[in-house]
Design a protein that fits this description.
It contains 14 helices and no strands. It has two domains: about 180 residues, UbiA prenyltransferase (Tetracycline Repressor, domain 2); about 120 residues. It is mostly helical.
Length: about 325
């Protein structure tokens, strides 16, 4: 059994699609697509905090204080935001057959937008990434190309897609490294061209981002039993519900530990703030394990996103102190 979509939501979605078809505007249809599959406000917040924390920490470790220009921040944030959109589009290609069979209500199977249109938009935005990168610091392009290279490997599922799909944890771990490359680009916006190279403590920040990616991924794909759907993967099905929540908890702790170690002279302060936040998170996780319904599932998913947003906010705050 799966959670049936809300009737009002279905009606609203149908009205949106009719309007989109009537207008026949690609921009309008892409906007409706993002509302469903890539919420701009949500991803904009996460990528903005992601870029802010990386630049703040890198500059603080390199020069003793956080300092960067608005242009540097805009390039780091916009490039990262576009990358997240490109990852969403790549998933549409990868999951198209399963979506058509098991989730025909999604935008691509029901004809709101086509794979070709999504792919074209992702490529055009890639040109914007390259233009911004070249404009701010020409020496940044190798870091952008490194992201694209790993992204290309991900899109091909590293040429071992069948094996990866049979091993969901390996699948997730292999895809999380894209966040490390993204982090490396963000911090390179700060240190490329400077007198001092990247600080070694940034390795903890890169690792923390890797685990934060796992927090988001577990949060998205841990489902209540009533919301499991045939053909759509979830970690609660692959690992078991309680082991999946425990894996989410372990990822949260690992991310926070790494980010704490990246903050020189502020370990105790960061650990104290993280501990306070974790008290709320653990309550949400426990409620889901003891009463795994759709409502508690949504709270768990939301808490996962809040944990990541809070962790990057803490890194930024302490870097500026």
């Amino acid at each position: 059994m799966y959670c049936p979509p809300d009737t009002n939501q279905k009606s609203h979605s149908s009205q949106q699609d009719q309007l989109a078809v009537k207008e026949k505007s690609l921009f309008s249809r892409l906007y409706l697509y993002t509302n469903e599959r890539f919420p701009i406000a949500q991803y904009g917040l996460i990528t903005s905090l992601f870029a802010l924390s990386g630049l703040s920490l890198s500059s603080a470790l390199r020069s003793g204080h956080a300092q960067f220009s608005l242009a540097q921040y805009a390039v780091a944030a916009v490039t990262t935001f576009i990358l997240f959109y490109q990852l969403r589009v790549a998933d549409e290609f990868k999951d198209h057959v399963d979506d058509c069979r098991y989730a025909p209500e999604r935008p691509v199977p029901r004809g709101l937008v086509s794979l070709r249109e999504l792919g074209s938009s992702a490529c055009l935005l890639g040109l914007l990434q390259l233009a911004l990168t070249t404009a701010i610091k020409p020496g940044l392009w190798p870091y952008l190309f490194a992201i694209w290279f790993y992204f290309a490997l991900m899109s091909k599922e590293f040429f071992v897609g069948s094996w990866l799909r049979q091993h969901p944890i390996s699948y997730m771990l292999s895809h999380m490294f894209i966040l490390v490359f993204s982090d490396l680009f963000i911090t390179a916006v700060d240190f490329v061209g400077s007198n001092k190279g990247p600080a070694l403590l940034l390795l903890f920040f890169l690792t923390g981002s890797f685990f934060n990616g796992m927090v988001i991924e577990f949060g998205r794909k841990i489902k209540a039993p009533e919301c499991e759907r045939e053909g759509l993967e979830s970690y609660s099905r692959a690992l078991g519900l309680k082991p999946a929540v425990l894996a989410l908890t372990a990822s949260m702790i690992a991310a926070q530990a790494c980010l704490t170690l990246a903050l020189p002279h502020s370990h105790s302060f960061a650990a104290l703030i993280f501990s306070a936040i974790d008290c709320f998170a653990l309550v949400v996780f426990h409620k889901f394990m003891t009463n795994p319904n759709q409502s508690n599932q949504k709270r768990l998913d939301a808490m996962s996103g809040l944990l990541v947003a809070a962790s990057y906010s803490i890194v930024s705050l302490i870097s500026w102190m």
